[in-house]
Amino acid sequence: MPNATNTVTTPPWLAEMMFTDNQKKLLQLLGDGHFHSGTHLAQILHISRSAVWKHLQSFAELGIEVHAINGKGYRLSRPITLLSANAITSRLDSPTKHLIAKLEIFDQLDSTNTYLMNHARKSNASGHICLAEYQSSGKGRRGRTWVSPFAGNIYLSILWRFQLGLSALGGLSLVVGVAVVRALKKLGISGVGLKWPNDIYWQDKKLGGILIEVIGESEGPCSAVIGLGLNVYLPLNTTASIQQPWIDLEQILGEIPIDRNQLTATLLNELIPILELFSTENLPSYLEEWRSYDCMLNKAVTFHLPKQTLKGVVKGINQDGLLLLTTEQGEIRTFASGELSFSPFSHETIA
Ligand code: BTN
Q: Which has more confidence, 10 or 332?
């Protein structure tokens, strides 16, 4: 099994869909964040200076900010390390690696979830991983758009086949949330919480979200596409449409650099074994841990249902992972779906 210091041979299930070779080379050259003259870049790539300029314009369309200064050349607004299949797989635990059938990395895609749902409709594949540097139609819950600028964040989807039926997948999103918190803790990121059913939070701000889409029979088997969006670096010029408080790992960690390849591998090392175990262990094994990450417990909230909005206080989750809410009328109600938001002016905890 190769490790980080060995030369990594490419397993047959790896596929990377990249820019053209020249675009990729250009991005790698500029990735250091230093200035490079147009002449120098053109010489290295054996292309004209105007071809360099055209490539740089195509980067701008993906939200990659390029600074051009007379006499100095071009520089990215911040250094970029692209996702790399080898850098990820060299950090995967051996059991995780064996459970992965295919890992694909795209420079751009409409949505990693949509891509894998199309696969799920055509085959019974399991263990198919898809990452993208940029999503043009990233999907959030409740039909929202997931803002997905280039090469700053994690957009990860996993296609998994369960012998269980759809009806048995109820607790899956909670279990996935547990795996994500475990991974972040392993990387030294503490204070991460979960907001029912599956938002990743840090100090009352959204750090990430999980979108699970399913296809199959109610009695089984079925397939699920588990999509995770995790904010690593969200440029301010891309965040205008985000309608809730958000945070990214760069703000949490300050100067400490974040290696997205390491982050992805750590996420997979937690997610894949938990998906494998889910069919046998199911939700009860993870309930207590989920509760320990619950960042909404005893908080005053507004609860949004398709046709109704309630005010209440969160009382955790029951044995089936359903939300418990004390309503304004004082009754405890149970919900299988819906969305929580903090009640305005009431971030305080109510015992
Ligand atoms: C949410 O609304 O909180 C869920 C967001 C899920 C976003 C991720 S990014 C990777 C995957 N592909 C998508 O189109 N959506 C999910």
A: 332
CA of 137 relative to ligand 1 center, distance in Å: 10
* pLDDT more than 70, % of the chain: 92
Q: Is 111 in the pocket of ligand 1 (CB under 6 A)?
A: yes
Tokens of 246: 């958000």
Please give the angle made by the CA atoms of 108, 160 and 17, to the nearest 5 degrees.
25
**Predicted model pTM:** 0.89
Whole-angstrom Cα distance, residue 11 to residue 14? 6
Q: For the chain, list the domains and their CATH numbers.
A: 19-76 (1.10.10.10), 85-292 (3.30.930.10), 300-342 (2.30.30.100)
Q: Is 149 in the pocket of ligand 1 (CB under 6 A)?
A: no
Mean pLDDT over residues 250-267, rounded? 93
Atom number of ligand 1 nearest to Cα 139:
14
293-309 pLDDT per residue, tens? 999 999 999 999 989 99
Question: pLDDT tens-digit profile of 338-349?
Answer: 999 876 544 444
CA of 172 to the centre of ligand 1 (A): 15
Residue by residue, DSSP assigns 81-103 as ----HHHHHTTS-HHHHHH-SEE
Q: How far is the CA of 303 from the centre of ligand 1 (A)?
A: 21
Our answer on whether the CB atom of 246 is closer than 6 Å to any ligand 1 atom is: no
Residue nearest to atom 7 of ligand 1 (CA): 229
- Residue 227, ligand 1, Cβ within 6 A: yes
Phi/psi for 244 (5° steps) reads -145, 160
**C-alpha 316 to ligand 1 mean position (Å):** 24
* Residue 186 clears pLDDT 80, i.e. is over it: yes
Residue 151 pLDDT greater than 60, yes or no: yes
Q: Which two tokens stand for residue 334?
A: 């149970």
- Taking the centre of ligand 1 as the mean of its atom positions, its distance from the CA of residue 345, in whole angstroms, is 28
Distance of CA 326 to the CA centre of its chain: 31
- Reported as type and span, the H/E element at residue 139 is none
User: Higher pLDDT residue, 242 or 316?
Assistant: 316
